[in-house]
Each structure stands twice: as C-alpha cells, then as structure tokens.
C-alpha cells in the first residue's frame, strides 16, 4: 500500500487532487501549508486520538499532558496498572477511561494488532478497530490517516471537515457524515491528503486548529 510518509507525498497528492478537481485550486491557494501530521503507530498514538475525541485542541493537549505525566511510558500494561485514580486525575472522562481500558485489554489479549492493522485495507482495518467498544469510525479513520499513513481515508464524521467543505463549496448547511462521505469520493485515491487540506483550510477560515492532536 502506498503510504503518506513525507511532505513530498502531501505535495504529490495535492497536485493530483487539483488536477482532478479544479475547484480545489482556490482552497490550496488559501492555505500556507498542509502539515503531514504523522505519528508512530501503536497504543500511544491511538490513545492520543481517543483523548482528542469531541474536545477542543487546547483541552486535548492539557489532558494528554497530564495523562503522560501520570503514566510514563504510556503502554497498555501501564495504563491498566495505573487505575481509575490516575485516569481521573488526568482529566479523562469516564467513557474515555473505559475505551482506553478496552483497547488495552484487546492489545494485551492479542485481539488488536495496532501495528499489523497498518498493512490492512482501510475497510478491513476499520471493521477490526470498531469492534472494540468505544472506538467509532472517526477514531479508526484518524488512526489510519496519521499513524498508518493511509492515503485514501476521509473522516467524514469530523465536524471541522464538514464545516470546511461546506464553506469551501458554499453549502447552506454543513454536510452531514453520509453526504460528505459521498461528496469526498471524487478525491479518491488521495482522500487522506484532501482531509489534511481541508483541516488546514478550516484553520484559515476559523483562525484555530481543529485537526486531531497527535
């Protein structure tokens, strides 16, 4: 599988996107840069994505800093051993505490191979990940984008992406996940780069970052 590993890969993808969809010329011109945002695959990377669910970038960064201070190194074994008091002091909500516990248990039981998943087709990997209680499509898709470097994943449930695409194309209402997923098909096989482009565009139009913390 072709991976998005470098900024050169991003630029190649953007050139292909703009050549295939001329509407993206203006979007590319509006952003100064499109960040790579890659992290090493594994438990810590997935944990950072879970922390970032449904909170602001600033809140996610604060919680992540406390979690890493309480549990270092952050491994499945250490997470479970730290227990609820450390989880609570880190600022994790109860649902996120439980999700990270389910992930930890699945990894230790050999039911979730976070490294091996990086080599699987996206649909197969998403199905495997979402079988773990607490992991939804957004979490699985973001992991595949930023930890596996998958080139053709578009997290259509992301509110910032919905807002950015809606703004870019003059939609009266922000597209929902179903409609955005269908809308983004035109950008295959570079949907992973298109997602990064629109997160960068969101930062321009709203003045704040919204891409997941890694």
In words, what does this structure look like?
This protein has helices at residues 7-20, 24-30, 43-52, 57-70, 76-90, 94-108, 122-130, 137-146, 159-168, 177-183, 191-206. It is mainly alpha-helical and 214 residues long. Helix 3 runs antiparallel to helix 6 and helix 5 (76-90) runs antiparallel to helix 6 (94-108). 59% of the residues lie in helices and 0% in strands. The mean pLDDT is 94. The protein folds into 2 domains: 7-38 and 152-206, Endonuclease Iii, domain 2 (Orthogonal Bundle), CATH 1.10.1670; 43-146, Hypothetical protein, domain 2 (Endonuclease III, domain 1). Keywords: DNA damage, DNA repair. It comes from Phyllobacterium leguminum. Its EC number is 3.2.2.21. It catalyses: Hydrolysis of alkylated DNA, releasing 3-methyladenine, 3-methylguanine, 7-methylguanine and 7-methyladenine.
Biggest sheet details: none
CATH superfamily of the largest domain: Hypothetical protein, domain 2
The percent range for helix content is 55-70%
Which oligomeric form is depicted?
Answer: single chain
The count of β-strands is 0
**Euclidean distance between termini CA atoms:** 22 Å
Count of all domains: 2
Keywords: DNA damage, DNA repair
Domain HhH-GPD: 51-203
Protein name: DNA-3-methyladenine glycosylase II
GO molecular function, one term: DNA-7-methylguanine glycosylase activity
Q: Main attributes?
A:
Endonuclease Iii, domain 2; mainly alpha; 214 residues; Endonuclease III, domain 1; 11 helices; 2 domains
């Amino acid at each position: 599988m072709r991976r998005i590993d470098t900024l050169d890969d991003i630029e190649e993808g953007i050139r292909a996107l703009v050549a295939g969809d001329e509407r993206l010329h203006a979007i590319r011109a509006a952003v100064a840069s499109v960040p790579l945002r890659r992290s090493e695959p594994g438990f810590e990377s997935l944990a950072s994505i879970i922390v970032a669910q449904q909170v602001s970038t600033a809140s996610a960064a604060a919680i992540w800093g406390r979690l890493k201070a309480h549990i270092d190194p952050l491994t499945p074994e250490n997470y479970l051993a730290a227990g609820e008091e450390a989880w609570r002091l880190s600022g994790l909500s109860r649902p996120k505490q439980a999700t990270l516990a389910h992930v930890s248990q699945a990894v230790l039981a050999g039911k979730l191979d976070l490294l091996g998943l990086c080599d699987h087709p996206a649909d197969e990997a998403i199905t495997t990940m979402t079988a773990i209680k607490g992991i939804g499509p957004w979490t699985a898709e973001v992991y595949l984008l930023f930890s596996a470097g998958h080139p053709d994943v578009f997290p259509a449930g992301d509110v910032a992406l919905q807002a950015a695409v809606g703004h870019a194309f003059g939609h009266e209402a922000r597209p929902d996940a179903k409609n955005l997923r269908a809308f983004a098909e035109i950008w295959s096989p570079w949907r992973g780069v298109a997602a990064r482009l629109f997160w960068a565009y969101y930062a321009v139009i709203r003045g704040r970052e919204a891409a997941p913390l890694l």
